[in-house]
Amino acid sequence: MSVAPSAAAETAGPPLGLLALAAFASMAAMRACDSLLPGLATSFGVSTGMAAQTIAAFAVAYGLLQVVYGPLGDRRGKLRVITLAAVGCALASLGMARSHSLSEALVWRALAGAAGGGIVPLALALIGDTVAYERRQVVLTRLSMATISGAIAGQWLGGVLADAWGWRTVFVGIAALFAVVAVALWRGMRTAPAPTPATQPFVQQVGGVLQAPWARVVLIVVALEGAIGFAAFSFVPAHLHIAFGLSLGQSGAVMALYGVGGLAWALNAKWLIPRLGERGLVLGGGALLCLAMGLLAMADAWIWAAPGCLLGGIGVFMLHSTLQTHATQMAPQSRGTGVSLFALSLFAGQSLGVTLGALAMDLSSPRVVFGAAMVLLPLLAGVFGHLLARHHRGH
Description:
Elements: H1 16-31, H2 37-44, H3 48-51, H4 53-64, H5 66-76, H6 78-97, H7 102-116, H8 120-130, H9 133-165, H10 167-191, H11 202-210, H12 213-234, H13 236-244, H14 248-298, H15 305-327, H16 335-363, H17 366-393
Helix pairs in contact: 1-9, 1-10, 4-7, 4-16, 5-6, 5-16, 6-7, 6-8, 6-10, 8-9, 8-16, 9-10, 9-14, 9-15, 12-15, 12-16, 12-17, 13-14, 14-15, 14-17, 16-17
């Protein structure tokens, strides 16, 4: 397996802090609606399941635009594209704050997802461009701390702000955050080295990634991870609010333990990664996800959701960080394209999972979604762990 770039090249990238700030804002925007579904449903006069379309709209647009952002970042400069995406997110968040119907909200959430799709995947690709493979998973984990913190802010603080001042305040705050991010990135872009643009045509860049058998495996697995795991956790705050009567802020606080679990993983990743190895991380993550989903599916009191979310956060990021690292190495010559296809697969899977989960929620209960995930996630981890072992033997 290639270990490019060299250690000398590692100094050429933009400051990790700038990428982390952008990633934080992006994830806060993405997860903001998780704790707001009951409030959105009341405001727009729709069911909670219908309000969940705001999550799916963001995810669908986020994923679809990856076929544009990846090649564009490779050709025009990844940091430049990230900066423009932050501006777009600020404007779309302001539009969401002014929405007065579900249809209007869906448009603004889709635009926010379309803009947000140009941030985290290209930040991952930038790290892939500038950090050698042996160190990359640890550095990617540091970026994950920002994305996890952003998810916590979106889920928990979003609920708290909505309880205190209404859900529109959440999106005004997100817009202000993106404005700060855009200014910081613009200043960083002025001092960053000029990018080396890709020279392959658009179709050839995408085709070059898809021709690799291992790339196809990674893309399929991450799509299934999104459809089963990421989608299932989206319904936890609404489930806690409806089934156990928790306020939006309280539901968001419990869900924030998912992010705390991810942070616990990130803080310990430096010594866990070499000890467990990639296959051990995948299998361990699958086992924790099985336990987490079991707790959520069978809990007769909200308190059981707390360890479920905590263990789920650890499990998800053990599995996902391994997939993420392989995504940055699928196509070293078109890394932005490769990582963007990875994000496309993830969010296409998540949008399908949220859509099916919302249907199950309206017809039955989120417990059905959690129970299915309890069975399917460890199965997915086991299959990927087996394929990963074969891939390493072949290299």
